Amino acid sequence: MINLLMLILVLGAFGLTIWAQFRVKGSFKRWSKVQAKSGLTGQEVARSILDRNGLRDVAVNPVRGQLTDHYDPVSRTVNLSEPVFYSDSIAAVSVAAHECGHAIQHKNAYGALVLRHRMVPVANFASGIAPFLLLGGLILQAMGLFGLGVILYAAVVAFQVVTLPVEFNASSRAKEIIVQEGMISNIEERGVRKVLNAAALTYVASALYALLELLRFVLLFFMSNDD
């Protein structure tokens, strides 16, 4: 009964993850067709925000793909996908401001971001080896191996959970800045919220799915030991 319930919950969370991906793509597509009244492109918005926050040394670069936007803390660059870099849409302005939010977090040593950066090596290692340990433990009925896989997978889940406040804070900073600086008018705030909330939902859905998967693995481990 417990296994069935967990399977239903995990499948539900997986479905939410897929739906969130469709929503963020749909929201970006819709608001990328609506020009911001300021007429500023994503690149111009990013450059302006960075300069006003004392981050003139942070470069703004175009990158290929769609929704490939990110801030690189190592090279200290804001990387915007071409549909954001060159566009003056509400979606472009929103995404560009969000990535600048991460650059400001970095400058201010925002606690959750600092913790997330420190967790990156562990999370990368754990995400690469955990699936093999979990699968190998089940196939070989080696619960010690499976247990080690659960521990490593827990590290991956912890990384995803820590990512949530980082993303929410960056979006909050973005909305506040672009409204205060007049890059977005009050009537355009709805579009900004739609774009950023849809993006945030993908992180929430992924974290929820990972948490439920972790709970399922933990239950499997203890049920196997009881047997």
For the sheet with most strands, the description reads:
3 strands, mixed
Rg computed from alpha carbons, rounded to a whole number of angstroms? 20 Å
Tertiary shape = elongated
Measured between the Cα atoms of the first and last residue, the distance is: 16 Å
- Estimate percent helicity: over 70%
How much beta, percentage-wise?
Answer: 5-15%
- The number of E-state strands comes to 3
Question: Could you report the average pLDDT, rounded to the nearest whole number?
Answer: 91
Strand order of the largest sheet: 1-3-2
Number of helices: 7
| Alpha-beta classification | mainly alpha
Low-confidence stretches: none
Oligomeric grouping of the chains:
single chain
Number of domains: 1
The run of helices and strands is: HHEEEHHHHH
Describe the structure.
With 227 residues, this protein is mainly alpha-helical. It has one domain. It has seven helices and three strands, in the order H-H-E-E-E-H-H-H-H-H. It has helices at 2-31, 42-52, 82-85, 90-107, 111-140, 143-180, 189-226, and strands at 59-63, 70-72, 77-81. The chain has a three-stranded mixed β-sheet. It is elongated, with a radius of gyration of 20 Å. The two termini are 16 Å apart. The mean pLDDT is 91.
List keywords for this structure.
three-stranded mixed sheet; 3 strands; 227 residues; mainly alpha; single chain
SSE layout and pairings?
Elements: H1 2-31, H2 42-52, E1 59-63, E2 70-72, E3 77-81, H3 82-85, H4 90-107, H5 111-140, H6 143-180, H7 189-226
Task: Summarize it.
This is Zn-dependent protease. The chain is built from 7 helices and 3 strands; from the N terminus they run ααβββααααα.
